[in-house]
Structure formats: structure tokens, C-alpha cells
Amino acid sequence: MRFREQLTIINQNVDDLKVEIETSQTLGVNFRHVINTKLLTKAIQNISTIGFIDNEIQAFISLGASLNPITNYQIGSEDSVTFQALIDKIKDKTEAVKSSIELSLPEQSENSISIGLPDYTDFNSIEIVTETLNKSLSIICGIENYRSEIMIQNFDSGSLWFEIVLGSSSTVGFVGFVVKTSFSLVAQFRALQMQKLSLESMNTEKSQKSKLYDELNKIFDYQVRQTLENAIENENKQIDPEDISKLVKSMSMLIPLLEQGTTFAPASTQNLETQAEFPTIEAMKTLASQKLIDTK
């Protein structure tokens, strides 16, 4: 997992590493309820993916606490002290890791976007992806009202991520909008690939297969256009009708990259409204281990 992704996960969850207790009494017996159980366990689960609180999670479970609770935790007075100390330890370690990551990462512009490439092992694949990204992003950043130069700010060849800087927050948000709209079509893209794979196994003349491939591609292009037009209307984006075809072309390049596991994340210093334009890192990462089916 890349440092930027780890930092994003920590920033999104560290504030929920706290224990909020509410006491009740039944038949003269005091009960302590952790009223923020769901937020707390979700934060622990998310942070655990980074891999530095394994021992604390075992200690957490040994207290009889589930990471998938149905109701709020109910703990005794003695266990509450141990429970609080354990959560404090997890939070201290999380903040220490956060500080280390922040010190090791280069300064990040507010209008930057971190792009993580799939785990490729050959230069040819990386070259193809970066060229495709450049073409797609150049189209997006050439649209009226969102025009911007694209500058590379940082690149890490070891973890295959790089950062681009755009001219404004609105352009960053528009890139996020196109990425999120493209991301919503990954399932349909996979269905298209499966249909092509089925055609490939059929005993049909090559010319007939070619016609069927073309028809499938036309159907998918229509889905892309309709999804984009609906998103533009729903989000009230100001897009010239002539630019929609350009964006469809850009999305047609982005969708296969997202399917393979390419991720996009705005700077953590960017305003929350703009950050919300992007799909979450967690959602994009779920696709990373799934391979693209190669068809003609």
C-alpha cells in the first residue's frame, strides 16, 4: 500500500479512535456502554489494513470484543480501564505512523491528484498506461470552464504512483467527477469483456465475429454517453454539448485503467466538497486484484 493511501486511511479514521462511555443502572448494577462502538470498530478495521496494530487487535479480541459488533459494547468497570488503555495505545501508534509518513512524503499541492498505477512488472505496460492517462486527462483538462495545464509534481517508481498538479480546485473536482462517472461503469465494462470472451469461443466466421464485436462496442459506447449525460444533468455541470463526445472518448480510456486497479486521490488538504467528487480509495482498491480479460 502506498504512503499516500496509508495517510488518507489514517486521516479519515484517527479521530474515531476514542471511547465514549454511557453508564446505566439495572437492579442496582452499573453497566458501561461504549456508545460509539460502530465508529470505533470501523476505524480500527480500516487502520488495521496498514498492518502496524496486529498485536493490539489480538489484545482487543482477547477482551471479548468483536470487530463486527451487532450492538454497543458493554464492559465492566475493571475491563473499561484496560479497554481505554488499549484504544489509547492504538491511537498513539496511529499518530506516530502518521507523523512518520508526513515527514517522509514530499510537500503536496492543494490542487494535486495522486495517481496509483496497477502493480505492473514490465516497462511496456507502464508506458502504455501513462500514455493513455495523458491522453485521457488532456481531454478532460481541455474542456471549457475547466481548462488547465497538467504538471507532474512527484513520482515514486518503487510504488508506481505519481502526482499531478492542476490549475484550480474546480478542475480537480471535474477530474474527480469524470473518474467517478467512469468508475460507475466498470461492472458494465466487465460484462462487455465477458460477452466478447464468449464470442471468441464460438464457431463463427471471423467476419461475423467482427461485426458482433462492433455491435457490442456500440452498445457500450451508448451506455457511457447516457451515463455521462445523466451525471452532468444530476450534478448540474456546465458542459458544452460538443464536448460530451470528447469526454466519452476520455472515459473509454479511463474505464479499462480503473478496472485494472488504477486509483485517483485528491490532496488531503483539498476542500471536502472537491474530495467528494472522487470515488473512495477503498472502493477503487477492491478492483486492484482483479485482472482484465483480454479480448479483441
Mean pLDDT: 88
| Major beta sheet, strand line-up | 5-6-4-7
- Largest sheet data: 4 strands, antiparallel
Strand content: 5-15%
Taken from the alpha-carbon principal axes, the silhouette is elongated
Through-space gap between termini: 32 Å
User: What is the helix content?
Assistant: 55-70%
How many beta strands in the DSSP annotation? Answer: 7
Give me the oligomer status. Answer: single chain
Order of helices and strands: HEEHHEHEHEEHHHHEHH
Round the Cα radius of gyration to an integer and report it.
24 Å
Name the features:
four-stranded antiparallel sheet; three-stranded antiparallel sheet; about 300 residues; 11 helices; alpha+beta
Describe what this molecule looks like in 3D.
There is one protein chain. By secondary structure, this protein is α+β, with helices and mostly antiparallel strands. It contains eleven helices and seven strands. The strands form two sheets. Strands 5-6-4-7 form a four-stranded antiparallel beta sheet. A three-stranded antiparallel beta sheet has the order 1-2-3. The two termini are 32 Å apart. Residues 292-296 have low confidence and may be disordered.
